[in-house]
Amino acid sequence: MAGENPNFQNTDPPTVLVHRFPTFDFPPGNRLSTQFHLLDPITSPPTSPVLLHSIRALLCIGPVPVTPETLNRLPSLQIIVGSSAGVDHIDLTECSRRNIAVTNAGSAFSEDTADYAVALLFGVLRRLPAGDRYVRDGFWPVNGDFPLGFKLGAKRVGILGLGSIGSEVAKRLAAFGCSIAYFSRKKKTSVLFPYYENAIDLAANSDVLIVCCALNDETHHIVNKDVMVALGKEGVIINVGRGPLVDEKQLVEFLVRGELGGAGLDVFENEPNVPKELLERDNVVLSPHCSVATPESFEALQDVIIANLKAFFSNKPLVSPVQKD
Amino acid sequence: MESIGVLMTCPPPDAYLVEQLEKRFTLYKFHSIPDKAHFLNSNKASIRAVVGNASAGADAQLIHQLPNLEIVSSFSVGLDKIDLAKCKERGIRVTNTPDVLTDDVADLAIGLMLAVLRRLCQSDRYVRSGQWKKGDFKLTTKFTGKSVGIIGLGRIGLAIAKRAEAFRCPISYHARTEKSDVNYKYYPSVVELAANCQILVVACALTEETRHIINREVINALGPKGVLINIGRGPHVDEPELVSALVEGRLGGAGLDVFQDEPNVPEELFGLENVVLLPHVGSGTMETRKEMADLVIGNLEAHFLNRPLLTHVL
Known about the structure:
- The structure holds two protein chains of two kinds.
- Chain A is of the alpha/beta class.
- Chain A is built from 13 helices and eleven strands.
- In chain A, α9 links the parallel β6 (about 155-160) and β7 (about 180-185).
- In chain A, α6 packs across α9 (about 165-175).
- The termini of chain A are far apart.
- Residues about 1-10 of chain A have low confidence and may be disordered.
- In chain B, the strands form two sheets. Chain B has a seven-stranded parallel beta sheet with strand order 8-7-6-9-10-11-12.
- The two termini of chain B are about 20 Å apart.
- The chains are: A alpha/beta, B alpha/beta.
- The interface between A and B is large, with 57 and 54 residues.
């Protein structure tokens, strides 16, 4: 019998159940399917519920929710391998209660996300998309010089969440001469940047706020009205984290009333819907949640996912476990 | 100093500069004078200074027409619109605004790299036009770690290198001579540099030698995945060659702040998604324009008060 042949068993790839929205998948040709037996209910619905009962590993692609109901169908589940940096779509409390480990994208996206935060900041301060529109729409020969932008190096940048993305942002912006400060749950002992104990104090001492913390109950609307008032009317907000980190309704009102200088937003509260008041404004830069969307990021993500799954199936420490507070 | 005539040869580049000049001197705005020959004939004696910029300075003909010209104070780093040989011959002092715009121009070079690779302007158009609701935006290209080749390792080139290092970009360069004080890889030819980097940025001065330094051969060496950034001067690039390379897909993308015939930009570029087009805003920040204006005025004041010039070239 094949099962008694140790060589055969070793080469039989372990089964991983795929959990995703029908519209959301890895690009074709990914390396996961060569190393694991991927069971994707969207392309091939399982023939018997018994199979789901035996599933130990779940690969969660994109922002698809993992709820207690999801978990009820998978009584043998031991690990959920996420494919994003933030795992706010996974019920961590419930996973913790059931002793299910959760991993995220680790630092696979950190560089691309940090790059994108810098790009959005350039977009707002040096008015890149507005300048590009000005040229393409033929205004330059007619209206003459384009309105001036603002110097990057003159800005005090406050980073909300100095994790792996925030640290990469800090490293980049320091090279432009920006002064850096931050707020995190805890002061980092290994970092020399000034620390503020709350978002309002950080905003009051910054010209630019870069939002790149994880979304959870504590950080929902961390950038609220008070933070916007503290940031001031020349202030700029960059959000590469999650939409609900910023009170979007207030943000729109502040921008419309001229009580904020500008915003660069890759994420929104109700994607893909973007408040229509933002669509005509030159002091905002908008992008469709694409800060991580490069082939390089997806390669790095596959590395992290494969490493986590391999570690799990061989009882080794996981590469990027999500720590529940 | 109110009696000293200052001729501004360029269109007024900055409201603050004009205001400060008018406070101190008798300012003539040449650009808006309809009969220039007549104006020069009646005012040439009183004009002792010219203020120009990257679009207009003082050519041989103008210098010839201004017998009492003592100083050209340029609101720019580049001096290609000033006939330096003529100035030297006549003993006319020439000043520019070095250093102050180094940071802005270097910043913009990196901004253009990020914008081209990450399709920043295109993604903004995608959201504004409502296309996001119909589906996801396509993948873009990572910037961190891409190799950057710099033509001209002067102040601006070095500032670009320093910034690109924070993105872990390997740096190489081409200059007339190899620099002994940097660790970046040197290529004696632009074609070799282009063949060995993913992003090529023009950061040298415009001279006879560097005119069209980006030609067909360089563009082909950079290749269909390469990106060209020009924050120097339009004539550094053979523009028709660049346009055809972009249209034919022989070049991966371009970020352009300067053009051969500003403010006219080749219309073939308007429909391309792999280019970012800016209206010459390299030094266009509030902070820097004020510093530049202060230098232009400071140089003029120093000259007429017989003090040492702040930033002179001649």
